[in-house]
Specification:
nine-stranded mixed beta sheet, alpha/beta, Rossmann fold, 3 domains, 568 residues, eight-stranded mixed beta sheet, 31 strands
Length: 568
């Protein structure tokens, strides 16, 4: 009897373990839908994503639905009813805390109706019409922009909207409602070949209603700034507009179309910088029998490799090997921007910021030119580029802390304005911040192209403001381990810091103890100095500019050519 009970308990335990180990089940349904039909989706318990799919002439239109949830989805929770050219999909569950997300693929030119409460709505493709209503969820549509008729309504808040074209003026309605209504039409070039079949129509009607949500029209959600209020341009934003960087300018225009237009019209005609394109691994080089290339070699973690010799490199021009004459450590000075966060997130810790900044100034090489730029809601240049460490130190006594955090704007300002005069030279930005932005016109993802194009190395030091507070209270005290988890950088900032360093070629430093800041400064100096001047023989004929490749022979290392010039 006892053995039977034990056996029964073991079977129960194994069965329970099996069910716990089994991944949550999704529900997938094929949908029978005709072209031009209407699909209504009601999902009060999660997100809705809808994508249009072209239908070949020899294929019958159809659709597909996938419902997913961390807790699994049962067939009974997804109800589909079709009648009179309309298909209604409803999510029903007795557990109001259970989130069920829907992803649908539907034929082009269908008519879409979506209802959610807090879940996001994402619609992508050539639909005839999109009607979406939500309480607080974000509504993001990416549709053809040749012919868009839009009616946007906020029932309980002022509009929060970003579009890739200028919207009509906001109209305040009764009962605290706000409406934006209008039409956007772009004439597309007509084909000169009459034998071509007519294109699928691309006119779209948008009827989007939300209580307090955000509406995005043809703008990627990851490129939306943190503060969606329509507000005057800051000094940083104006400098970005003046820079001529078309990528950053377009992001500013989307964020504040009215103020951007007013400011842009006040400026003389600008020479726009070209849009970002990926840098080629092959570098064009000048005509000369002896050339010197400035080369940086990094490992898989983007850290510079020191101590390399001529035997560690291989150089070719148009596929032909070239003789390496010498490899020397580069001693050329850097143009460094020290970017300091003095926003409200670190308010009352001005002494810490000053002390940390002075430590950096004292650590860098005496030949390096340093500029100090602070930021909160806006930017301010404390010191222009100089090698005078005394002047740099004195400038740090001229600021106070407080305000919001326009971190992304400040970074774009440093790239497009402060360092612009040194294009082609060795440049770097060292950042001291907690990494959390709440006031920028720019979104983080709109920075990557301009950062890569600038060639500046970026070294972010992310310091949690709670860590600063603990150090200010008692610099020698060990941090309470229970509180330690509240003194870390947010996951979002952590990911952005790593990406920022990676795309620029710098190194990310998540600071967990105050003493690590000085160690980071010392490491940055080592990283900056780990570059090589490689002189090699060239057989360039007059008028011919061969393609240059410089490779590192060491395993898992990568050589980046910064510049090439005729050897002295």
């Amino acid at each position: 009897m006892r053995l039977a009970i034990i056996r029964s308990l073991l079977i129960t335990a194994v069965t329970l373990a099996f069910w716990l180990a089994t991944p949550a089940q999704d529900v997938t349904r094929e949908l029978k839908i005709t072209s031009g039909s209407t699909i209504e989706i009601v999902n009060r318990y999660g997100r809705v994503g809808v994508k249009a799919e072209a239908v070949a002439d020899d294929k019958t239109p159809s659709g597909k639905l996938t419902a997913s949830s961390p807790k699994g989805v049962s067939d009974g929770e997804i109800k589909i009813v079709s009648a009179g050219g309309k298909t209604t999909i409803t999510v029903t569950t007795t557990d109001t805390k259970k989130r069920i997300d829907l992803v649908l693929t539907l034929p082009e030119r269908s008519n879409i109706i979506v209802q959610t409460v807090a879940g996001a709505v994402e619609v992508n493709g050539n639909f005839a019409s999109v009607a979406a209503s939500t309480d607080t969820g974000t509504v993001a549509v990416d549709v053809p922009d040749e012919d868009i008729t839009y009616n946007l309504l906020w029932t309980e808040s002022k509009p929060r909207v970003v579009a890739n074209f200028d919207l009509s003026a906001i109209k305040e309605k009764n009962a605290g409602r706000f409406e934006i209504k209008g039409k956007e039409r772009v004439e597309s070039p007509k084909s000169k070949d009459p034998s071509l079949e007519p294109e699928i129509p691309k006119s779209v009607r948008l009827d989007l209603t939300t209580a307090r949500g955000i509406i995005l029209i043809n703008v990627p959600p990851n490129e939306v700034m943190s503060d969606l209020r329509e507000r005057p341009l800051t000094n940083a934003a104006k400098a970005i507009v003046r820079s001529g960087d078309s990528l950053l300018m377009e992001a500013i225009r989307r964020a504040a179309p009215k103020y951007y237009g007013d400011y842009a019209r006040s400026l003389p005609p600008m020479m726009f910088e070209p849009k970002f394109s990926a840098k080629s691994a092959q570098t064009e080089n000048p005509n000369a029998s002896l050339k010197t290339a400035l080369v940086r070699v990094t490992d898989l973690k983007n850290r510079s490799i020191a101590g390399l010799t001529a035997n560690d490199f291989e150089i070719t021009e148009s596929g032909t090997a070239r003789e390496i004459v010498s490899v020397e450590r580069s001693t050329a000075p850097f143009n460094l921007v020290l970017l300091l966060d003095v926003s409200g997130s670190v308010e009352n810790y001005v002494n810490f910021i000053r002390k940390a900044a002075r430590a950096f100034v004292n650590t860098v090489d005496e030949k390096d030119r340093v500029s100090i730029v602070i930021f909160n809601d806006d930017v301010k240049v404390l010191s222009k580029f100089t090698t005078d460490k005394g002047k740099l130190s004195e400038s740090l006594d001229t600021f106070d802390a407080g305000g919001g955090t326009a971190y992304y704007d400040a970074l774009a300002y440093a790239v497009s304005d402060t360092l612009r005069q040194f294009k082609g030279e060795r440049t770097a930005i060292v950042i001291l911040t907690d990494g959390d932005d709440n006031r920028s016109f720019l979104a983080f993802d709109s920075l990557a192209g301009s950062i890569q194009e600038s060639g500046a190395l970026i070294y972010p030091l992310y310091v949690p403001s709670g860590l600063i507070a603990a150090a200010a209270a008692n610099p020698n005290a060990d941090i309470d381990p229970v509180r330690r988890k509240y003194m870390s950088v947010s996951a979002k900032a952590e990911g952005e810091g790593e990406k920022l360093a990676r795309v620029s070629g710098g190194v990310y430093y998540p600071i967990k103890e105050i003493a690590e800041i000085q160690k980071a400064y010392e490491d940055i100096v080592v990283q900056l100095r780990s570059a090589y001047n490689i002189t090699f023989r060239s057989e360039t004929s007059s008028g011919n500019s061969p393609r240059l490749k410089i490779k590192s022979k060491r395993e898992n290392t990568f050589a980046t050519v910064t510049s090439v010039a005729a050897a002295p």
